[in-house]
Amino acid sequence: MKLSQTRQDHLYRAIQSVQSEHGFSVNLLCELLQLPRSSYYKWLNRKESPREKVNQELLDTMLLLYEKVEGIFGYRQLTIHVTRQIGYPVNHKRIYRLMKVAGIKAVIRRKRKSYIRSTPQHIAENLLNRQFTAQTSNEKWVTDVTEFKYGNGQKAYLSAILDLYDKSIVSYVIGHSNNNPLVFKTLKLALKTTPGATPMLHSDRGFQYTSLRFKKRLVSKGLTQSMSRVGKCIDNGPMESFWGTLKCEKYYLHKYPTFEDLKNAIEQYIYFYNYERLQKKLNSLCPMEFRTKTA
Question: Which Pfam families match (predicted)?
Answer without folding.
Answer: HTH_21, rve, rve_2
